């Protein structure tokens, strides 16, 4: 896989953390993290700052209200 900049990886880290990126993106982030200590530190900060119990994560992924709110936030009402 080709070299990806740290800035791109840093943009991807929240998606990677939430397990909502594609398999290709996941592999790209993991490969980069295996070689880049700076990005590992950034990922560790995300892990430390965002601590949501696993049970809540699972419940929220299946809660239709959370999904609806997420979809509504993405729409442009202007």
Can you tag this structure with a few keywords?
single chain; 78 residues; mainly alpha; 5 helices; 73% helix; 0% strand; globular
Major β-sheet annotation? none
* Spatial gap, N to C terminus: 40 Å
How do the SSEs run, as a string of H and E?
Answer: HHHHH
Compute the CA-based radius of gyration.
15 Å
Oligomeric state as shown: single chain
Low-confidence stretches: none
Percentage of residues in helical conformation? over 70%
Mean pLDDT: 81
Roughly what fraction of the amino acids lie in strands? Answer: under 5%
The secondary-structure class comes to mainly alpha
Number of strands: 0
**Spatial shape:** globular
Figure out the total of helices.
5
Q: List the domain count as a whole number.
A: 1
Describe the structure.
It is a single chain. This protein is an all-alpha fold and 78 residues long. It has one domain. The protein is 73% helix and 0% strand. The protein contains 5 helices and no strands.
């Amino acid at each position: 896989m080709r070299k990806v900049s740290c800035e791109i990886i840093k943009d991807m880290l929240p998606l990677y953390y939430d397990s909502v990126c594609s398999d290709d993106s996941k592999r790209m982030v993991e490969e980069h993290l295996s070689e880049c200590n700076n990005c590992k530190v950034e990922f560790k900060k995300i892990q430390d700052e965002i601590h949501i119990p696993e049970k809540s994560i699972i419940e929220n992924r299946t809660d239709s209200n959370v999904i609806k709110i997420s979809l509504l936030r993405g729409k442009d009402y202007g």
